[in-house]
Fold:
Amino acid sequence: QVELVESGGGSVQAGGSLRLSCAASGRAASLVTMGWFRQAPGEEREFVACISTRPGSLYYADSVKGRFTISRDNAKNTMYLQMNSLKPDDTAVYYCGAALRPPSAPWEARYWGQGTQVTVSS
Structure:
């Protein structure tokens, strides 16, 4: 099993940057594909990006491609999402997810973190 804890959410102006972190723990923490999802108020949860354990194969949703960068520190079992050029439409609760299935775009997680709020003002 895998436990996930997100951090790094907050408020930022449009065009600004923010970095999210997700720490994984549990016996399978170093074996899983990890990824990010987000859910805006009244909307379905959507895939953002995911990354394989090693080497790092990266996949992004078209809406964030070129602006967001996903990375992973396997020694720390921690995944990051560097978000640049943020837009008001990026406002959502961001969730960390993990699963043993290989990465793809889109991708679905089996284990979930509690979520962290990201708010982008115009």
